[in-house]
Automatic annotation (TrEMBL), chain A:
Keywords: ATP-binding, Cell inner membrane, Cell membrane, FAD, Flavoprotein, Hydrolase, Membrane, Nucleotide-binding, Transmembrane, Transmembrane helix, Transport. It is found in: Cell inner membrane. It is a multi-pass membrane protein. This is Mycobactin import ATP-binding/permease protein IrtA. InterPro entries: AAA+_ATPase, ABC1_TM_dom, ABC1_TM_sf, ABC_transporter-like_ATP-bd, ABC_transporter-like_CS, FAD-bd_FR_type, FNR_nucleotide-bd, P-loop_NTPase. Its cofactor is FAD. Pfam families: ABC_membrane, ABC_tran, FAD_binding_9, SIP. Residues 281-564 form the ABC transmembrane type-1 domain. Residues 598-831 form the ABC transporter domain. Gene3D superfamilies: ABC transporter type 1, transmembrane domain, Nucleotide-binding domain of ferredoxin-NADP reductase (FNR) module, P-loop containing nucleotide triphosphate hydrolases, Translation factors. The chain crosses the membrane at residues 280-301, 321-346, 421-441, 514-535, 541-560. The keyword Hydrolase applies.
UniProtKB/TrEMBL annotation, chain B:
It comes from Nonomuraea endophytica. GO terms for molecular function: ABC-type transporter activity; ATP binding; ATP hydrolysis activity; ATPase-coupled lipid transmembrane transporter activity. Keywords: ATP-binding, Cell inner membrane, Cell membrane, Hydrolase, Membrane, Nucleotide-binding, Transmembrane, Transmembrane helix, Transport. It holds the Pfam family ABC_membrane. It is found in: Cell inner membrane. The chain crosses the membrane at residues 21-45, 51-84, 122-143, 149-171, 240-262. This is ATP-binding cassette subfamily B protein IrtB. InterPro entries: AAA+_ATPase (IPR003593), ABC1_TM_dom (IPR011527), ABC1_TM_sf (IPR036640), ABC_transporter-like_ATP-bd (IPR003439), ABC_transporter-like_CS (IPR017871), P-loop_NTPase (IPR027417), Type_1_exporter (IPR039421).
Length: 842, 577
């Protein structure tokens, strides 16, 4: 079957072919036909992702034996029944696929290929919304996307209506989708005008309309500030043509809109690198010059050889040429060194700037931000990602430029020497392209399996090593299977890689310099022998042309690591884009005074608008009293306490300290006034003294010792190798209870008016619980204290006990009163009292 | 490194085959290069047609090279896959016998990485790294030797250039690595600081010490910047030394060729031919330079593999007859046991105690007393430095490890659950158990309440490390597992972080299901569990300070009695302003 040039290329690259047989068809509207196929082989390949499409070969209605290729989205793929549907818009003038669909009969067959067909992959980071633009022909794809987009993400769908019955084509339901149909007027900018003029920051656009309309929409999106990476567009059909050639359509009136630019998260990496951009380009240009300079000696060598051949060994100017070559070599190498040095200087400054920005950012995000993520993300940004960016700046850009400029310059030069012989050099590259294409096609089915194996082995290896004690104690079960997993993986790798090994070797043999050399010598030798080429013209080929192919391929590796670095820059950029805790515009300092009353008035809070964690909290904390928060887990105790330190800002109501709203307090005042002691203790690397004196670096040793004594930790500290000067972490480790007492000492020294104790009385270390308790008793004296407790009896003596349930205050009062009345508190008390009243001296 | 890798594969025959094919392939390549001299001399002479037979020779050599390289790859794959299969088994075998104390968090990560990817990396390394490296190393020397026959001074210069270039390559690699590692060290140090900064934000903000001006982090940032600039001093010479050496070699060889031409030993066409061969002579060194980062990685992989294969192992004492537990002996007997994680620093300093069949012993003491270490010694996760641990009449070191493990039910403080269903995690205790037995164990360990709460009940997956359960819940699963195993000696480490009602009941359930014959050693924190023991051992600084029954120890009014009173006081404490 004649499939033209495209068919040959696809075949050469190892495209798979599947035969689909028509099972049934229905007309959803008079112009929209769904055809269901039996597809026995289609599901053997990689899994079918949302909006995957296939290339279908449709017979040419006019020339028998010819076929044309068209892309169609796979609708409702059913791997169990091996059935899939394609949807066709029946339009005029009809193209070959449309004509085929119109005359389809059950039992007809058609061939499709999944080769290099894309699919919809949700972009990362997850966009704020999706803008989907198209028409009836785009609906199969749009439907698949609607099904894949999370329910909470807004979607704008703008569709052009060519027939009234287009409205009856079913659309996938999505709770936050807004669908607009705009009637077609013949003007190809109808869709573009329907895209609202607003801030589309962080939205993602998918445009699959008619060719000219797609182009207009793309222009419109550019005006609205959409970065290229966030617009996926593809023309699905061409107006006025059955197929093939585009008829240029001029759009007269272009909507004049002010250029609006939002901010896209997907550009975070680009924004981070923006200050470097011009200098990186400059470096690239410089590198190009250096690369050319480094080629020059070889040209001189060729010239030298030419003169030798012409004039014998005593040819004129050989010495001069030799010296010139030496000078050029030296200059080239030195300049390359200077360039690398310059890039390192540039990078040192940039790296410093990035790290300092991260540090400043960390100081400005709401404290709640830290509880949401592991330190792993921060580590990735400051360590691994920073290293990738370092590599990008210092090496990757230069390497890529060198890898591209050098072979291209060589090729260009060789073409001027002898175009015919230069063309021969492209032969191995063509072979390489075809062979690798076939190999990728052949092994692509195994690739997903490979990554499944990698993940599985990696997670089992982690479980195996971490659980080694359990593995030894039982030596059976899931861990016993680890050996079997490894063996199975080895069998998989063997079956996959061994057959590929032969092909890889062939690729390697084809692209190696020796093969190019043979090609040059055979062709060039025959040309020289035949008198077509002068022997001297063969020289540059022998000197420069041999490694040309290998160099060009090396550019591919450079690009890979550059891409990694860009991803890394994106992650750092995202971290730097995190919203900051708003500083008050007009800060109000706290009035001078001793006690600090705290009041929650009508406070509500939720991490997301849909889900409130706290609602309608009214609470007063009086100076010199202890208020305890109790309640079942998930009641919102920790969240309530966190609000007091502005870990998050309230969504409704207000929290005041001494009458000043937290949001109006300068942050430094806030942190100085509100102190915390947590169960999870954060000690910083440094001496014991520095850890205690964290808030008051100027504190004297006497002051530090005084609070350490009060916190029951002084005796332990003086037993450490260097007493108060012991470096924590390096010289000594403290037990949980000891670290807890150290932070109590720290809080005592900081002397905040308001104190939050979160689970501070939980057992970090049962053996030293008594000392922790003593220390706490010292700490709370005379302050406004809010304490969260799991173990009820530890707060039975609190002035006020606030019982939280489901984010609301359900009971409030002293222990003695709460215990007498029916309610949650009494239930909790009775449930826990079994353990808390020890069966002493049993 | 090459031999190390081949040795790991273990298959001598395949290695010999591979090595001979590789030698043949390298010789063929060198031959092809050298055939250029007569070929090009003829081509550049007045009668270029004379070159045709030599072109045929070159074509034949290149084709033979292809064939032999194809065979080399095949042989390499054979070794690689042999290695893949063999190596992973070796590593798993070794991991089973390394004392647990050997595993620092770094070694743990190394072992995981080794299990995941080293087999595959080494397998690929043979075909993609070893073959081209050997080729590139041998080729220049062979060409140099061949040039001796063309013109001996040229050959000598070429042979002299080989060590020069290899030396430059080595030096450049060394400097670049030094630069990289000092950069990594400086950045790593800073990264640690930043992470710490993130973790200590509340404390640091309270202290108002978050900026970059005049703070520890600010100083670290400045230091890192300076370190980054300093590394240019190492990096640039590293980058340049190989480039200069190559150029020097190239110039030296070209100058020699031209001189030979001037002196008339070579004619003009021969000089040109030789110059072209010289350019090719340099090429393998560039290949080596390109391969060196990958070779460095492979060296790292090999080092990780050897770190495990060469780690100390706990081996059963050699004996002819199988050692079987004795029914009449004490369940556990510790005889003057000494042990330290670091030499000269004993964590356990002479502990003796006996746990009779059917009794419970509680080990009590302040944190750091060595309680958990004691448990690890009994399970032979480490070997004692002096003294002996006897389980059911025999030294633990004399048992076959599997037999010893059969005697023990262990409930750890940090419970590790596998990412499988709750049911499978319990069943691990005794894969042969009936469903009823499994359910009974679960009920005794207070798992019923968890099963009811979880969405898929018994079949709920517990997540990686069991993280979808709380610490206390994980320990209850582990108690059920140990109860199901029904081993003669139960070792229990009460979780300090999970002292709630259900856990207390589970622990008590475990102690009470002890039956007639089972002995229990429990590291106890709760007063209620301590009170249930037949014998209490008070451990302090690795020594048994007091031991006896609860009334005896209270009457003694010593260290334990003080500890007991303080704990009682703590339990009744309330935070009063």
């Amino acid at each position: 079957m004649a499939r033209g040039y495209g068919g040959v290329v696809m075949k050469a690259f190892g495209a798979d072919e599947h035969t689909l047989t028509v099972v049934s068809y229905t007309d959803i509207t008079p112009h929209f036909r769904r055809i269901t196929f039996h597809a026995p082989t289609l599901f053997d390949g990689p899994p079918i992702e949302p909006a995957s499409w296939v290339r279908m070969w449709a017979p040419d209605p006019e020339r028998a034996g010819r076929e044309h290729q068209r892309g169609y989205t796979l609708v409702a793929p059913d791997s169990d029944a091996c059935e899939v549907s394609l949807e066709f818009v029946l339009h005029e003038p009809a193209g070959p696929a449309c004509i085929w669909a119109r005359g389809v009969k059950v039992g007809d067959t058609v061939q499709v290929s999944r080769w290099s067909s894309g699919q919809f992959t949700a972009p990362t980071p997850e966009p704020d919304g999706y803008l989907l633009v198209g028409d009836a022909a785009a609906l199969p794809g749009i439907n698949a996307i609607l099904a894949a987009v999370p329910e909470t993400t807004p979607v704008e769908v703008i569709l052009e209506r060519f027939h009234d019955d287009d409205l009856h084509i079913p659309l996938t339901a999505h709770p936050r989708a807004r669908v607009t149909w705009v009637p077609a007027t013949g003007d190809d900018s109808v869709l573009a005008r329907a895209v609202e003029d607003r801030d589309w920051s962080d939205w993602y656009a998918w445009v699959t309309a008619e060719s000219a309309a797609t182009k207009r929409v793309r222009e419109r999106l550019k005006e609205l500030g959409f970065p290229k990476a966030d617009v996926k567009s593809r023309a699905y059909w061409i107006k006025g043509k059955a197929m093939g050639v585009d008829r240029p359509t001029e759009s007269e009136e272009r909507p004049e809109t002010p250029k609006r630019t939002g901010q896209w998260r997907s550009r975070a990496g680009a924004r981070l690198l923006a200050p470097l951009k011009s200098r990186l380009i400059l470096a690239g240009v410089f590198q190009a010059v250096v690369s050319l300079l480094q080629l020059a000696p070889y040209l001189i060598l060729a010239e030298l050889c030419r003169r030798l051949l012409a004039g014998g060994a005593v040819a004129a100017g050989v010495t001069e040429l030799g010296l010139l070559a030496v000078v050029l070599l030296g200059v080239g190498t030195t300049l390359a060194g200077v360039l690398v040095a310059a890039m390192h200087v540039l990078d040192a400054g940039f790296g410093h700037h990035v790290r300092a920005s991260v540090v400043r950012k960390l100081a400005r995000v709401p404290l709640g931000w830290f509880t949401d993520r592991t330190s792993g993300k921060i580590k990735q940004a400051v360590q691994d990602d920073a290293a990738s960016v370092h590599y990008l700046v210092t090496h990757a850009v230069l390497d890529i430029v060198a890898a591209v400029v050098t072979p291209l310059a060589v090729l260009g030069y060789l073409f001027t020497v002898s175009a015919g012989l230069a063309a021969i050099l492209l032969v191995p590259l063509a072979f390489y392209g075809v062979l690798t294409g076939r190999m990728v096609a052949a092994s692509s089915a195994a690739l997903p399996k490979f990554s499944v194996w990698e993940t599985r082995v990696a997670s089992e290896a982690v479980a195996y090593v971490d659980g080694l004690a359990v593995v030894r104690a039982y030596d059976a079960g899931p861990a016993g299977g680890f050996r079997a997993t490894l063996e199975e993986r080895a069998r998989f790798l063997d079956a996959w890689q061994r057959p590929l090994g032969g092909r890889k070797t062939v690729v390697d043999l084809v692209t190696r310099p020796l093969t190019s050399l043979l090609l040059i010598i055979v062709t060039g030798g025959l040309m020289v022998a035949g008198g077509v080429l002068s022997a001297a013209d063969l020289l540059p080929f022998l000197l420069l042309g041999v490694t040309f192919g290998a160099q060009l391929l090396a550019a591919g590796y450079g690009l890979g690591s550059a891409r990694e670095a860009l991803d890394a820059a994106q992650r750092i950029g995202l971290l730097l884009d995190e919203p900051e805790l708003p500083e008050p515009d007009a800060p109000r300092p706290l009035p001078a005074g001793e006690g600090r009353p705290v009041r929650f008035s009508g406070v509500s809070f939720g991490y997301t608008p849909e889900h409130e964690v706290l609602s309608g909290i009214d609470l007063e904390l009086r100076p010199g009293t202890v208020t305890a928060l109790v309640g079942p887990s998930g009641a919102g105790k920790s969240t309530l306490a966190a609000l007091l330190a502005r870990f998050h800002d309230v969504t409704a109501g207000r929290i005041t300290i001494d009458g000043v709203d937290l949001r109006e307090l300068p942050l430094t005042d806030l942190y100085r006034t509100v102190g915390f002691v947590f169960q999870d203790v954060a000690l910083i690397r440094g001496s014991v003294h520095d850890n205690i004196a964290l808030a008051r670096p100027d504190a004297t040793r006497e002051e530090v010792e005084r609070v350490a004594r009060a916190a029951q930790i002084h005796d332990r500290i003086i037993r450490l190798p260097s007493g108060y000067d012991t470096m924590l972490g390096d010289e000594a480790r403290l037990s949980g209870g000891e670290a807890q007492r150290l932070t109590i000492a720290r809080a005592l020294l900081a002397d905040p008016g308001v104190l939050v104790l979160d689970e501070a009385t939980a057992y970090a270390d049962p053996e030293s619980e008594h000392q922790v308790q003593e220390a706490l008793s010292h700490l709370v004296a005379g302050r406004t204290v809010l304490v969260i407790a799991h173990r009820l009896h530890t707060v039975a003596g609190a002035d006020t006990i606030v019982v939280l349930d489901g984010g609301r205050i359900v009971q409030q009062g002293a222990h003695a009163r709460l215990i007498t009345e029916p309610g949650l508190y009494r239930e909790l008390w009775q449930a826990t009292s079994i353990i808390e009243q020890p069966k002493a001296s049993a | 490194m090459i031999f190390q890798t081949l040795r790991l594969a273990g298959d001598r025959g395949a290695a010999v085959r591979y090595a001979s094919l590789l030698t043949l392939s390298t010789i063929l390549r060198a031959g092809a290069m050298l055939s250029l001299v007569p070929l090009l001399s003829a081509l550049f002479s007045a009668t270029p047609a004379d070159a045709l037979p030599w072109i045929a020779v070159l074509a034949a050599l290149v084709a033979a090279g292809w064939a032999s390289d194809y065979a080399v790859t095949g042989a390499g794959f054979a070794i690689g896959f042999g290695l893949l299969n063999n190596l992973e088994t070796q590593i798993v075998d070794r991991l089973q016998r390394i004392p647990l104390g050997w595993f620092t968090s770094e070694r743990r990560t190394g072992a995981q990485r080794t299990l995941t990817s080293s087999g595959r990396e080494l397998c690929q390394g043979i075909t993609h790294l070893l073959t081209p490296t050997v080729n590139a190393l041998a080729l220049p020397a062979l060409i140099g030797a061949g040039l001796l026959f063309v013109a001996w001074p040229l050959g000598l210069v070429a042979l002299a250039a080989v060590p020069l270039l290899l030396g430059a390559l080595w030096l450049s690699g060394r400097w670049l690595r030094a630069a990289d590692s000092s950069y990594d060290a400086a950045s790593g140090e800073l990264a640690q600081r930043v992470i710490e900064l993130a973790q200590s934000q509340p404390a640091l903000r309270t202290a108002g010490r978050t900026g970059v001006e005049g703070t520890a982090i600010g100083r670290a940032l400045t230091r890192q910047r300076k370190a980054a600039l300093r590394l240019i001093g190492l990096g640039i010479p590293g980058q340049l030394v190989f480039g200069f050496a190559t150029q020097a070699a190239l110039l030296g060889l070209a100058a020699t060729a031209v001189t030979l031409g001037v002196s008339g030993e070579l004619n003009a066409a021969e000089v040109v031919a030789v110059i072209i061969v010289i350019v090719r002579f340099i090429e393998p060194f560039t290949t080596l330079a390109d391969l060196s980062p990958a070779l460095q990685n492979m060296r790292g992989t090999l080092a990780r593999v050897h770190a495990i294969l060469d780690a100390p192992a706990l081996d059963p004492a050699q004996g002819d007859e199988e050692i079987l537990p004795r029914r009449d002996a004490a369940a556990l007997e510790l005889r003057d046991v000494h042990f330290g994680y670091e030499p000269g620093h004993d964590t356990i300093a002479g502990v003796s105690l006996t746990v009779e069949r059917g009794t419970t012993t509680a080990v009590v003491g302040p944190s750091g007393a060595g309680k958990s270490t004691l448990l690890a010694l009994i399970a032979r996760f480490h070997d004692v430095a002096a003294g002996a641990v006897h389980v059911r009449g025999h030294d633990v070191r004399h048992y076959d490890p599997a037999v010893l493990m059969g005697q023990l039910g262990i409930v750890f403080q940090d419970v590790y659950l596998f990412d499988a269903s709750l049911y499978d995690n319990v069943r691990l205790g005794n894969p042969a158990a009936t469903e009823d037995e499994i359910r009974a164990a679960a009920t005794a360990a207070q798992l019923d309440e968890i099963i009811v709460r979880l969405p898929n009940g018994w079949e709920t997956r517990v997540g990686e490390r069991g993280t979808s359960l709380s610490g206390g819940e994980r320990q209850r699963v582990s108690i059920a597992r140990a109860l199901l195993k029904n081993a003669p000696l139960l070792l229990l480490d009460e979780a300090t972080a999970a002292l709630d009602t259900n856990n207390e009941r589970a622990i008590i359930g475990a102690l009470e299901s002890t039956g007639q014959d089972r002995a229990t050693l429990i590291i106890a924190h709760r007063l209620s569990t301590i009170a249930r023991a037949d014998q209490i051992v008070f451990l302090e600084a690795g020594r048994v300070v007091e031991s006896g029954t609860l009334p005896e120890l209270l009457a003694l009014n010593g260290r334990f009695a003080g500890y007991w009173r303080q704990r009682e006081q703590a339990a009744g404490w309330t935070l009063v302003p």
